[in-house]
Fold:
Amino acid sequence: MELHLHEVEEASRKLDREISVFRASTLNDVIATFASLSERGIGALYVDDEAFFNLNNPVLAAFALEHRIAASFRGRDAVVAGGLTSYGARPTDNMRQLGVYAGRILKGDKPGDLPIVSPTKFEFVLNLKTARSLGLEVPPTVLALTDEVIE
Structure:
């Protein structure tokens, strides 16, 4: 998370925007965080790609909708569950690369000798139903950029 946080902080400075960082490791933390977001009038949320969050994406998406917060995630599953958007590496490409690594290891390559490969294909997913429920109008230019629109 710290790497992504640095990138988000850098982007917020460039855009002259203020960000608030909330950390959660239990569902009680999530409930408290959403209460705080609502109290502070925060209307947008970026959820990082952490194991706890990934396991609870449907819950996070439901809380975001309940509190009328536009939530962006790193994975498509959260958008299917009601999140507004996601942008991240294609999971199928990651799994394919994992299979390539497994095959090479089974053929005798040492794991430490395998190159580190960064994702090259990313996908942008938008939940149009969620956008409408939040009262957001999605410009045609944004729709044209999406890899998948969930209605």
Notes: The mean pLDDT is 90. The domain at 2-90+121-150 is CATH 3.40.50.2300 (Rossmann fold). Strands lie at 44-46, 70-73, 85-89, 122-127, 148-150. The longest strand covers residues 122-127.
